[in-house]
Automatic annotation (TrEMBL):
Residues annotated as binding allantoate: R212, N273, R286
SUPFAM superfamilies: Bacterial exopeptidase dimerisation domain, Zn-dependent exopeptidases
Cross-referenced PANTHER family: ALLANTOATE AMIDOHYDROLASE, ALLANTOATE DEIMINASE-RELATED
Protein family membership: Belongs to the peptidase M20 family.
InterPro entries (UniProt xref): Amidase_Cbmase, Bact_exopeptidase_dim_dom, Peptidase_M20
Keywords: Hydrolase, Metal-binding, Zinc
Secretion signal span: none
Gene3D superfamilies attached to this UniProt entry: 3.30.70.360, Zn peptidases (3.40.630.10)
NCBIfam families: hydantase, PRK09290.1-5
High-level lineage: Bacteria, Bacillati, Bacillota, Negativicutes, Selenomonadales
Top-rank lineage group of the source organism: Bacteria
Protein name: N-carbamoyl-L-amino-acid hydrolase
Ligand binding (Zn(2+) 1): H77, D88, H187
Length: 407
């Protein structure tokens, strides 16, 4: 019963932002707002008291018997990447609703329970990811976010105002460590480790650290028919060399768990008959080992300067963010493992290459992350899929974990 409810709701939510391929529900877009409204209704119908904070996180709560006790919290996100799937984030939201509903029916617990729908987990057009949990944990501020502008010149302050949110009140969204006893997120794996090992649950010990950069290559726009090959300052040719260099440098560090991606490229003016004058590229480097990431970044910087000089193009690198890997809580890892054993569920300990709101929550509370397999590891892709059976097992483990923490 519960399971068919979830499968049906996954399809319902996928209608918000349904695209030619997959689901495009970017943070703070009309589709995202509609999905949030829909989910808020589901949360209300499940008996949760709802409030929205100043970054747009939706917080649903069930009180416990001890008015002073810290909350036991679960949550995830509703926004997607462009042309994303139906499961990334959503499994944790619907799983959280299902878990809280079950626990509410079982009767009052000592601690309050909360489900948080975090705003904007995916990297947004301002180059900031997991913005809801970042603000909630005080990891960024109105001062920093107030400086952000997208490429059309729209400020983050304006974007928030369009949602009825005031950047000057952002600090009201910050939670104190004493308010939260623990945070546990349920999510799809977005990799193949569980499927390969034939395990149903992955219990995360560390989440990889991302470093993000914007690289701007400046050449000279010119007529593609009249500019001789040896007189060009083609920004896209330099950019192509930079992409290859990133790939090579990350490959060299691959045995230390580093991955490097240029995932976005803008070419200006972007016409068939113009030698590209300017290219903007976005680079994402991740890994479990901070010093390997720093080494990678340095090598990329050197390679970029060398290419720019050789190609007679200008270059600027802006570090958008650089973080350390997040260690999740050892006691929670043990608690979740014990629950899997008790429920006869095959599990394994592992690390997560993907970023999650849990890694930000780990800064203010004990944080745990429960992963379930997704087919062939495919994610950030319309073909993303997790089976109803695995989703149910993930919910069972989440429910029991929240129960043990809140009883
Ligand atoms: C988002 O899903 C990320 O891991 O970057
Ligand atoms: Mn994602
Ligand atoms: Mn996600
Ligand atoms: Mn993510």
């Amino acid at each position: 019963m519960e399971n068919s409810w979830i499968i049906n709701e996954i399809e319902q939510i996928a209608q918000f932002g349904k695209d030619k391929r997959g689901v495009t529900r970017l943070a703070f877009s009309p589709a995202d707002r509609a999905a949030r409204e829909y989910v808020e209704k589901l949360m209300r119908e499940s008996g949760l008291a709802i409030r929205t904070d100043q970054i747009g996180n939706i917080i649903g709560r069930i009180e416990g018997t001890d008015a002073k006790a810290a909350a036991v919290v679960t949550g995830s996100h509703l926004d997607t990447v462009p042309e994303g799937g139906k499961f990334d984030g959503i499994v944790g939201i619907l799983g959280g609703i299902a878990a809280l509903r079950t626990l509410k029916m079982r009767g009052p617990l000592t601690h309050p329970l909360e489900l948080i729908v975090f705003s904007g987990e995916e990297s947004n057009r301002f180059g900031v990811s997991a913005i809801g949990s970042r603000v909630m944990t005080g990891w960024t501020s109105a001062k920093t976010l107030g400086k952000l502008k997208d490429q059309d010149g729209v400020t983050f302050t304006q974007l928030l105002a369009e949602q009825g949110l005031d950047i000057n009140h952002l600090d009201q969204a910050v939670r104190r460590p004493e308010e939260i006893k623990a945070f546990v997120e349920l999510h799809i794996e977005q990799g193949t480790a569980l499927e390969k090992a034939n395990k149903t649950i992955g219990i995360i010990e560390s989440v990889a650290a991302p470093a993000r950069c914007k690289i701007i290559v400046e050449g000279v726009a010119a007529h593609s028919g009249t500019t001789p090959m040896d007189e060009r300052q083609d920004a896209l040719v330099s950019a192509a060399m930079i992409i290859l260099a990133v790939n090579e440098i990350a490959l060299e560090q691959a045995d230390r768990g580093v991955v490097g991606t240029v995932g976005a490229l803008k070419v200006y003016p972007g016409a068939m008959n113009v030698v590209p004058g300017l290219v903007e590229m976005l680079l994402d480097i991740r890994g479990m080992n901070h010093s390997s990431i720093i080494k990678c970044l340095q090598e990329i910087k050197d390679a970029v300067s060398e290419i720019a000089e050789r190609q007679n193009t200008g270059v600027a690198i802006e570090i958008l963010s650089s973080e350390r890997p997040a260690s999740l809580d050892g006691e929670l890892v043990e608690l979740i493992a014990g629950i899997c054993r008790q429920q006869g569920i095959q599990y394994q300990h592992m690390n997560s290459g993907a970023g999650h709101d849990a890694m930000n929550m780990a800064r203010i509370t004990k944080a745990g992350l429960i992963l379930i397999p997704c087919k062939a590891g495919v994610s950030h892709n319309p073909d993303e899929y997790a089976s109803p059976e695995d989703i149910q097992k993930g919910i069972d483990v989440l429910t029991e974990t929240l129960y043990q923490l809140a009883k």
